[in-house]
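Why should sequence recovery work at all? Because a backbone constrains its sequence more than one might expect. Tight turns favour small or flexible residues, buried strands favour hydrophobic ones, and helices have their own preferences. The token representation captures these environments compactly. In the example below, the structure is given first.
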């Protein structure tokens, strides 16, 4: 019986070691993924002036500069809100659950980017949200879509 117990303990230790290696692999940043996400973030950011010019084509030429200024002011306002509160509401730990479904995140999880790592992937409750690229880059990429 002691041989079976020892074998079970060895299997459990092996499974724990394999899980730890899996977690360590998911925390490694991939250069290609990070570069692609930088490119994708910058392309989404370029969509904002494109949207300004699209909407300015629908108004008279006198209102074009005003509309472009409004778009850029809204971009700053929405991204500021994204940093301070909305990122936590979207990707934070469960704050509001109804019938076992998570609807809103806890606004203090990532308030003002407090727990968003720069050199590691974003983690929520010990699980990696987006493996292969930094959490701050994930925040910026998602924030660009919030701006649009």
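From this structural description, the recovered sequence reads:
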């Amino acid at each position: 019986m002691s041989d079976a117990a020892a074998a079970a303990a060895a299997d459990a230790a092996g499974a724990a070691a394999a899980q730890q290696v899996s977690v360590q692999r998911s925390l490694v940043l991939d250069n290609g993924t990070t570069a692609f996400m930088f490119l994708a973030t910058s392309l989404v950011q370029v969509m904002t002036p494109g949207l300004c010019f699209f909407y300015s084509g629908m108004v008279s030429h006198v209102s074009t500069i005003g509309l472009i200024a409004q778009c850029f002011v809204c971009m700053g306002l929405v991204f500021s809100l994204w940093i301070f509160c909305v990122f936590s509401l979207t990707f934070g730990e469960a704050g509001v659950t109804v019938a076992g479904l998570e609807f809103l995140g806890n606004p203090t999880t990532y308030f003002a980017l407090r727990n968003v790592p720069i050199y590691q992937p974003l983690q929520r409750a010990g699980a990696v949200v987006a493996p292969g690229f930094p959490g701050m880059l994930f925040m910026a990429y998602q924030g660009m879509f919030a701006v649009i």
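A few observations help interpret the result. The helical segments are 2-26, 31-56, 64-91, 135-147.
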